[in-house]
TrEMBL record:
Topology with respect to the bilayer: Multi-pass membrane protein
Protein's name according to its UniProt entry: Uncharacterized protein
Keyword Acetylation listed: no
GO MF terms held by the record: alpha-ketoglutarate transmembrane transporter activity; fumarate transmembrane transporter activity; sodium:dicarboxylate symporter activity; succinate transmembrane transporter activity
Keywords of this entry: Membrane, Transmembrane, Transmembrane helix
Gene Ontology cellular component list: plasma membrane
Coiled coil spans: none
Organism annotation: Ciona intestinalis
Pfam families for this protein: Na_sulph_symp (PF00939)
Family: Belongs to the SLC13A/DASS transporter (TC 2.A.47) family. NADC subfamily.
Residue ranges crossing the lipid bilayer per the database entry: 12-33, 45-68, 74-99, 137-158, 268-287, 419-438, 450-472, 479-496, 508-531, 543-567
GO BP annotations listed: alpha-ketoglutarate transport; cellular response to lithium ion; fumarate transport; succinate transmembrane transport
Amino acid sequence: MAVPMVLRQIWAFRNTLYIIIPPILLLPIPIIINSTEASCGYAILLMAIYWITEAIPLAATAFLPLIIFPLSGVMTASAVSAAYFTDTAWLFVGGLIIAVSVEVTGLHKRIALRVLLFVGAKPRCLMFGFMMTTYFLSMWISNTATTAMMLPIVEAVFRELKAGEEKRANEDTNVSMYLILQNENKNEKESQIADFNDVIFIPDDIETEEQRNKRMDNLIKGITLCVPYAASIGGTATVTGTGPNLVLSGQFATLFPDATMKLSFGSWIAYALPGSVCMLILAYIWLSLYFLGFNLREIVGCFRGSDVTEGERNARNVIVTEYKKLGDITWKEVTVLSLFTTTALLWFFRDPGFMPGWSILFEEDYVDDGTVAMTMAFLLFVLPSERPSFLHSVSTMESDELLRPVAPILDWKTVHHKFPWAVMLLITGGFAMAKGATESGFSEWLGDQLIFLGGIETWAICLIVTIVVCLFTECSSNVATASIFVPILAQLAQSLEVHPLYLMLPPVLAASLAFMLPVATPPNALAFSYGHLKVMDLIKAGWMLNVLGVLVISVFINTYGVSYFGLNEFPAWAALPKTSGTTAAPTFNMTSTV
């Protein structure tokens, strides 16, 4: 049945309708109610619709607070502008500039190839090596950049594995063939077959071409999918690892300015790293069993390194060749590695929580993670990309070479080209939205509307919102999803007098667990673009990882999270304005959640 022309025309202009219709339908809210809370709610709903439908580019949607808040009297233009560039925003900027330096110098590729050489070229070892390397790199640099770098290596290694398997299959076929002479003399025929079998061993379990093709098809699907999945998991381990983490860190500081605790780099990695490692191990076990099956002999052989096939030797040779192409480690790689390591240590030990950090050397709240990030980013535009001339032996140099200037590791043209400006605007737009919700009183109003959930067990609310966000993020930007849900969950926590992090942290971590669809996250889309995968492959492999992810997040927040962050108490700094005068902070019982 043909689709009517009118419907086809409407579908063709659906993005235009998404842009025009929502602001008109929502307009009665600020007109009829006529309050700053209503105006703020109008802006938040409009941003949520645009972010979900992506009718307008996500970064452009982040401009709306700059337009609506001043015009509707929610915030002044200067106040809403300041909300865009908080310390968390500069942490994001500095962290990404450092990540760009790692990518530009090729340090990430050297690390990746070195790890793959260490683990070996057997399929299960390769999958483990690809996942471990991708996981580690995505903790520090963009998940998309990490995936884009790893997938070509996956392709090259798989081609050699496949070629080796085909060659071995041909040899097995030749060995398994036996000569049957069509003779009238039956005894002569049986004798010749017996003689042949005395010389050549004929295995009973020869793999057919169909079986081999299916096995190799599963192998390429498995090692292709393990890369984007590990990238998504690795991004949850550090506050700079992925956008949703920065959304929570920034909005937490905006929504709770009086909080005695902050989501610093050190506190985040101390909490999130164990859970992400647990998730990585479970993901590896599931993917290896799903795509490679359970073979005890093969698993043992992976650790013993025995029975290496020609395809595996060729695959290792590819990795060796790629590593040799990099040459000796360069001056700029050593410089970036040193600066990168120093940055991570400074972030972690600024305020680690279990001991006094180096920030006590300065005035309280004067130095933050953003200060460290921007200091190190600044040095990348100063430090030389080559060994300075004055460090060379004068006897081996011409006099004019002593005056030759050395270019810095980074220049602004490179940073401008590689920096994800759209993601930054999307994150900072969420900061402005959260600030407007607080200033306008919308947060307090929303909290009053959510008070009816007080009759439900706290652990059940946490589990439900985690599942909802985990499913929601499959069809929406991870950063946009976090930006929408974080303010709502903050007000829900205040209304129920639950520690805000108890309801905010699990869903934000779940926002990165987008495993089931190609459009869920750029790493998935990159893996899908290579042509080895179908949508059903992602759904079948990803649904279990979503389940495992939600379980791991729920277990950790109700055990380690309660202990580490003190989530069993409702802090006074999180109380709504109408209850801020109370002298004692109420508590809620967590025993049923453990």
